[in-house]
Each structure stands twice: as C-alpha cells, then as structure tokens.
Amino acid sequence: MRHDFDTLHNHKHQLIQHYDAVFEPSVAKRIFLQINMLLPQRLVMKIPIKLNRFMIEGPGYLHDLCRSSVTRRRDQLESHDINSDHLDDLLSVMIRSKELEEQNTIDQMRTFLSVGHDTTASSGGWAMYLLCKNPSIKARLCAELDENGPYDVPDICRKLESLPLLNAICNETLRLYPALPITVREAACDTRILDTIVPKGTWVIMSLWAINRSRAIWGDRANDFRPDAWLTTEPGTGKVHVNNHGGASHAFSQISFLHGPRICIGEKFARAELRCLVAAMALHFDFELADPDEEKTHAGVFTARPNGGIILKLKRRLL
User: Fold this and answer.
1) pTM across the whole model
2) Partner residues linked to 204 by β-bridges
3) Of the residues 85, 112, 121, 303, which has the fewest C-beta atoms closer than 10 A?
4) What residue numbers does the annotated binding site for heme cover?
C-alpha cells in the first residue's frame, strides 16, 4: 500500500481509534458480539449504545480510506507517475493484475487493514509463548535455521517455506490458537447439516477453536503442542517433509482459515508473515518468558490475543 499511518508514534490516529474501539477486549464488546449472533443485525444496530456508533463509523472510515488509496494508486499507475521501485506493494500488484474490479480491490484492502495485522501479531505472540514453553523444540528450530542459511532477500520466502520444522511449528500454533476463534457464514440456499435443516439466510456459527482442539479429531493430546505431528519421514530416503493433516484423519481437520470457495483470502499471506516472524525471532534472538511460570489464556473480542500480551526477555544470538 506504501502508506505510512505512523501508528507506532501517533496513537491518536483515527485508524487506531476506530480499531481499538472495535477490537480492544471488554465485557461490553463480548456481550455485544453474543447479541449479534442471536439477533438480526438490523435490530442490533438500532440499540442506542456508543459501541454501535463505532461499528457504523469504523467500516465507513475504513472504506473511504481504502477507496481513496485505490483511486490514487490507480491514477499514479495510469499516468506512470510512480517510481518503478514502488510497484511491488500489495495494492499495486492487485491493480496491475486487472483481475479484480475496483470494489473488490477496495474490499481486499479493507480485509488486510482491519484483520490482517492483529491476527498475525496474535499468532506470532502465541508461537513465541509455545516455543518458550517447549525449549527443546525451540533449540531444534534454531538448528534448522542455522543449517539452512543464509537468508537473502530475493529467495527468503521460498527458502523459509521449505523448512519442515518451521512450517510444522506455524501449523501447530495456528491449530491451537486460531487467530479468529469463531466465524459466521450465511446459508446461500436451503441446505442441511447432518440431520439439521438450515434455511437460506440462516447464520451458521462455527467454533474454529473447538474443532481444532477436538479429541475426536486430534486424539487425547489435542490440547498439546505437537509440531512433530505435522512432519512425515519418507521411507528409504529419510527425508522429512510437512504433511497437510497434522495427525488427523484428513486435511480438512485444521480449520483455522476454513476451506473451499470461502476460505480466508489472506491465508497464504498470513502464513508467510507468521513464518517470517518466527524465523526472524529464532534466528536472531535467544528469548524466554519474563515469567517462566506464567500460564497464558486468550482474550480479545474477534481475535484470540494472549491476555496481557507476551512479555519476553531477549538476547541477541551470535551468528
């Protein structure tokens, strides 16, 4: 997008204000979310509470912001009024591909801005927590990263994607702590789920958290951190590669991003971000929890943030 919101220094930025109003955990927001799931949205939005105002104004502000960014970047590309070195950002790539209509491009930018960074930050925090709680796995990850370096910019993404343990750790983190613990889909037509009739327009609420931790799917150790379940060793060659099931009966068991035509559009982007974040931390720092005995629970309204954040002690590794 190549737009600096300066959110690290300007906490009063309008984007931050709207973002915190919607995503920062509170009892009122949890109740509001439950009401949204039980009642038609048109009724919920008529409840005279302050949160409703933010729910209405926030998406409107974000839509206007994305629309102006798309229009400005499209005009720059058409007039060639942009440095050729600045053509590799996500927005420029989407516009130049000419595969998306303008409204679809705006919607994609809204998705990345609204849920694309908090989800990755939450997943990254949980990955650090799990590695601190499992130092032997962290040591194996550091060894894998050390053995396969250096990591040059042109092919760093491809190289990280080829590392079995790194990807297994990311897969297992996303299984145990899906960034969005619940999601909702609306039935596009009359259908049936097992013996339950689902009329068109019905909201279907899915608990990704419960499915990803179901003992019926993942066995008695469903709540344990087991990245090795995502690794398969080839007979004869001994080569280790990442499987797509994590020890479950089929590949559709891990449902953190959903599956099918309504799969999360940012899945590959989110996985790449998490992969880079975990690799960078493990490659460059020795880290441990500030309080090694602390047991973290999740918080958040829409995303499964670590309650109170993850506080680490860092020491730069000598490479």
Assistant:
1) 0.81
2) 185
3) 85
4) 264
